[in-house]
């Protein structure tokens, strides 16, 4: 990574973190309700029976109401478990039992499956800091999803979950940054490639 690109990414991430932290509780509640409806529509339209998701942190788009709905519908949900080596294991969870994982992020408590377990889901929903119009996903800098997605020979459709304002004209891209197939925001589903 060039120093300029690294600085550009750090500055954009800092700006996005600040925007997320400055959201009001009213904005968060409205987006949570809208995002839940959009995620439900995504799953129903595609007849998804298994999905890889994540446990959202307080400033992230709130996927927890969707997780509760998915469990009630009998959808198999895999949730990530971070590893020291930079890869993700996966666990089937109910979304209710969690612990603090590496870097202070919430993680599911449950039977841990291998990194290969994600190969069998119908779709992968990833967190992101922002996504460009060309499908380039910028994460938060740890590289877990880039490594996971980059290691898959055949992967199910991957959609990043972001706030509407985080769908940008473009984001800085490095060679290891993995593109996504689409985004899901509180107001819409956009597919870049199928």
From TrEMBL:
It is an enzyme of class 6 (ligase). It catalyses: (6S)-5-formyl-5,6,7,8-tetrahydrofolate + ATP = (6R)-5,10-methenyltetrahydrofolate + ADP + phosphate. GO terms for molecular function: 5-formyltetrahydrofolate cyclo-ligase activity. Its EC number is 6.3.3.2. The keyword NAD does not apply. Its cofactor is Mg(2+). Keywords: ATP-binding, Ligase, Magnesium, Metal-binding, Nucleotide-binding. Residues 1-33 are annotated as: Disordered. This is 5-formyltetrahydrofolate cyclo-ligase. It comes from Curtobacterium salicis.
């Amino acid at each position: 990574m060039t120093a300029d690109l690294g600085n550009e990414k750090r500055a954009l991430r800092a700006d996005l973190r600040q925007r997320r932290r400055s959201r009001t509780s009213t904005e968060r509640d409205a987006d949570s309700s809208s995002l839940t409806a959009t995620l439900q529509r995504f799953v129903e339209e595609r007849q998804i029976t298994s999905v890889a998701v994540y446990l959202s942190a307080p400033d992230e788009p709130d996927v927890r109401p969707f997780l509760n709905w998915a469990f009630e519908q009998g959808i198999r949900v895999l949730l990530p478990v971070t590893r020291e080596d930079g890869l993700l294991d996966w666990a089937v969870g109910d979304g209710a039992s969690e612990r603090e994982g590496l870097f202070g992020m919430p993680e599911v408590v449950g039977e841990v499956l291998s990194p290969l377990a994600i190969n069998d889901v119908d779709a992968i929903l990833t967190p992101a800091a922002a996504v460009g119009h060309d499908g380039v996903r910028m994460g938060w800098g740890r590289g877990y999803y880039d490594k996971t997605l980059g290691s898959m020979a055949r992967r199910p459709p991957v959609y990043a979950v972001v706030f509407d304002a985080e769908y940008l004209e473009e984001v800085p891209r490095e060679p290891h940054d993995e593109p996504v197939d689409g985004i899901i925001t509180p107001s819409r589903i956009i597919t870049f490639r199928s």
